[in-house]
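Reply to dn_fold:

You asked what the input looked like. This is it:
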Amino acid sequence: NWHPLTWLSHMADVSLFGVAPGPQHLMNALLHALSTAVLFLALKRMTGAVWRSAFVAALFGIHPLHVESVAWIAERKDVLSGFFFMLVLLFYERYARRGGTARYLLVMLFLSLGLLSKPMLVTTPFVLLLLDFWPLGRTKWAEPAEGAPWTPLSPVRLVLEKVPLFCLAAASSSVTYIAQQRGGAMTALSLLPLSERLANAVVANASYVEKAVWPASLSFFYVYPDKGHPWWLVVLSLCLIAGLSVLSLLFMRKKPFLLSGWLWYVGMLVPVIGFVQVGAQAMADRYSYLPLTGLFVMVVWSAADMVSALQETQRKLAAAISGAILVILGAVTSLQISYWADPMKVYQHAIRLDKGNWFAHNNLGLRLAGQGRYDLAIKEYGEATKLRPDYLEAHNNMAIALAQTGRIDEALFRFATIVQAAPYRPDFRLNLAHAQAAKGLRDEASRNYQEVLRLDPGNPQAIAGLRRVSEGGGKREN
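and this is what came back:
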């Protein structure tokens, strides 16, 4: 990824607090709390509805699907970009209400900072167009939420107004595409056909809706099915998406918040829904961090409209139910946080949910190896390679563990097989060279160290290894 502001925030944390995880976790939590507060202010200013805005903000702040974005230090890009996104909403309301170049420049500034934190904000200009429709009422198709006397603007005017924002998004998209392509993070179309990507996009879209309503079986990694999703699940998911879309359109004038919230959700998912597949996951909780806000708006405003037609006693009961929902969500969030308190728990929980989670087996093996429990680590790597035979990282990790336990011949065989499968990977070839040097195969080790330096000029481990074998040494220095 390309997110320089996120890197700078990590560097600032380490400069201020060192590598201790506590302060970095607190910084993530602080950014999330600030985003929650700014979301409340933005919605309140746009709609004038204090309690509805507060409940949407509370859902954003406490929902279990957001645990991954906050509890995982390396996911700083979510909470940092989310904070700037909320500031965009807040200052866009001021611009839409009063106009002015300075206010527009502030919107551009915060969007730029958000894009430098995480490129997922490329859909923000479209979200602002949705806000023009509702709640700001800057179009002729819907009244503003507050009933203020707005002068509707033409769609062309509203789009042209956002051309600078679209340019920022386009520039960010281009840089991100190049970075991910060169970094090898993108899955080739030949490996994952467009039909499978579309099917997974449909299922993932519906799954986020399901988990927003019933946040159970949350995992740090959702396995992409090797044989694709079953047809009935794709059809069922498509029916859910189509049904919500039709419902939103039918009530576009009477309940414009349905269309605005639904398109907010669907639109913000587009960069991470899998049309351009980055990584091996089918979906991820962190991808729903900002899109879910659109669903929250739909649900809260719909429920509030229904409650407003009830009698006083019934409204009190509805308020009690709303409070109970927040308490239950808070309890589930607390449980989810407990898994993230220890990497072992994260991986073990993922395996309990899905025994076929090859990625979790590999990561659990790495954790066990880090504790010196190599036999258990080898077992986990074996599970990972059994489930995903082409997962070279797990094969490589197993070979390292075999070498650590003195089974050097087995390790050599595995390293050689891995290098044959991926001759362009200097890290795999470096491990083979280390194993050959440990075995006393100096000529073979020397050739592989030299090849590593060809693939990765200046690699310090290859330089040191080549020096050792040329001086007649075998085993690496610690």
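The mean pLDDT is 92.
Hope that clears it up.
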